[in-house]
């Protein structure tokens, strides 16, 4: 007797997962959650709006592995309420070094997905203390800032 594909109520979820374009080329899902983001639009490159709208953004972190080593990291941001909202951030070790220098990051490339995950989870658990602020520029580019509120 042959093993039948995994079906649930006549629907093959395993086959559907294989259709996910994010999982081609050996990418594996590392993290997926809806995270409250404060969305801000910038009129110019250096002038973001002061206050933005709070919206749930679906965040996916994917890793392309080469054995045990992380080869590429991709972060995808999308919105259920706006089908045209899609931002992708993809880095390999070389492009990460450039970002690391520019942003003065203390984290290493292989730890980057875990650190991002922790910061995103803090924004979920404590949205008033840890804010994820997403600034969208007219060029189509964007920036994600994590801001820790401090009380004096």
TrEMBL record:
Pfam families: SAS-6_N
Domain of life of the organism encoding this protein: Eukaryota
Domain Spindle assembly abnormal protein 6 N-terminal, first and last residues per copy: 30-150
Cross-referenced CDD domains: HD_SAS6_N
Protein's name in the database: Spindle assembly abnormal protein 6 N-terminal domain-containing protein
InterPro entries with a match to the protein in the record: SAS-6_N, SAS-6_N_sf
């Amino acid at each position: 007797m042959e093993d039948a594909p995994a079906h649930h109520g006549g629907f093959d979820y395993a086959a559907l997962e294989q259709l996910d374009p994010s999982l081609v080329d050996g990418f594996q899902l590392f993290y997926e959650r809806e995270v409250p983001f404060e969305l801000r639009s910038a009129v110019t490159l250096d002038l973001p709006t002061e206050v933005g709208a709070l919206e749930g953004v679906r965040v996916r972190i994917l890793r392309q592995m080469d054995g045990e080593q992380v080869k590429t990291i991709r972060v995808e941001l999308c919105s259920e309420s706006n089908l045209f909202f899609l931002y992708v951030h993809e880095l390999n070790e070389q492009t990460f070094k450039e970002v690391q220098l520019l942003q003065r990051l203390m984290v290493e490339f292989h730890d980057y997905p875990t650190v991002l995950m922790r910061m995103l989870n803090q924004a979920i658990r404590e949205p008033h203390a840890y804010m994820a602020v997403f600034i969208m520029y007219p060029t189509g580019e964007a920036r994600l800032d994590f801001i820790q509120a401090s009380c004096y």
